[in-house]
């Protein structure tokens, strides 16, 4: 079977409408492809910026992790020692005959009363307190503490404060006032007692205060006001 094309037949010419339609379609396709490329480029740019920001955050975190942390002031422990001059001056000492007997105060958590301290001595000075405490540490195999001026100022202020409020409540505020960027602790007591009596008879009999005196401190200083004594430790 054979086919032949009539030479008289020809491909019809496109009308103006069809030409415009094809042109519009080509233009639309070109614009769509261009927008797609622009969108892809925008997405790649965002991903690159996010990656860069993450890298910066990681770098900052690594730098911060390498910076030495400033030690926060260590809050003092709860144990306190209040000196009672004779067994009749506090109801907790009634019936107690043992000299220098440490009796817990049920009304104040962590506070102790020392009954029968049998004192009548002249009140210690701050210098005597510093000397007695360092002698005590050395006798127990610990280093003597370097006397620090800032700690002396804190101890002096605290001695006045505990004459009005016998507690550790104001210690943190005193540390912050002097911008002390070290670990710190304090011992408090009331007398009047000699420096040796404060250290070796009073604080030594209170577990919390004894632990403070025999810890790995590097600096310290005592403060005295009236019959009240304070010792501040730091490292």
TrEMBL record:
UniProt name for this protein: SCP domain-containing protein
Classification via SUPFAM superfamilies = PR-1-like
| Start-end of Polar residues biased regions | 79-88
Entry-linked CDD domains = CAP_bacterial
Q: Which UniProt keywords apply?
A: Membrane, Transmembrane, Transmembrane helix
Report the superkingdom from the record: Bacteria
Transmembrane regions: 21-44
């Amino acid at each position: 079977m054979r086919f032949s094309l009539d030479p008289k037949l020809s491909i019809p010419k496109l009308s103006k409408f069809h030409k415009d339609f094809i042109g519009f379609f080509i233009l639309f396709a070109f614009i769509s492809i261009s927008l797609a490329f622009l969108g892809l480029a925008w997405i790649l740019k965002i991903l690159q910026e996010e990656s860069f920001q993450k890298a910066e955050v990681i770098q900052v975190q690594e730098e911060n992790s390498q910076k030495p942390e400033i030690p926060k002031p260590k809050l003092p422990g709860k144990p306190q020692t209040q000196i009672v001059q004779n067994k009749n001056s506090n109801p907790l000492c009634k019936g107690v005959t043992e000299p220098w007997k440490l009796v817990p105060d049920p009304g104040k958590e962590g506070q102790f009363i020392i009954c029968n301290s049998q004192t009548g001595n002249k009140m210690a000075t701050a210098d005597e307190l510093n000397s007695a405490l360092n002698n005590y540490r050395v006798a127990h195999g610990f280093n003597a503490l370097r006397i620090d001026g800032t700690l002396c100022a804190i101890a002096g202020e605290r001695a006045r404060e505990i004459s009005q409020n016998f507690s550790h409540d104001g210690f943190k505020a005193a540390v912050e006032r002097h911008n002390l960027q070290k670990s710190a602790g304090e011992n408090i007591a009331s007398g009047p007692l000699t420096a040796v009596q404060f250290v070796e008879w009073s604080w030594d009999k209170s577990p919390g205060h004894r632990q403070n005196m025999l810890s790995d401190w590097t600096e310290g200083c005592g403060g005295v006001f009236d019959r009240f004594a304070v010792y501040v430790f730091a490292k």
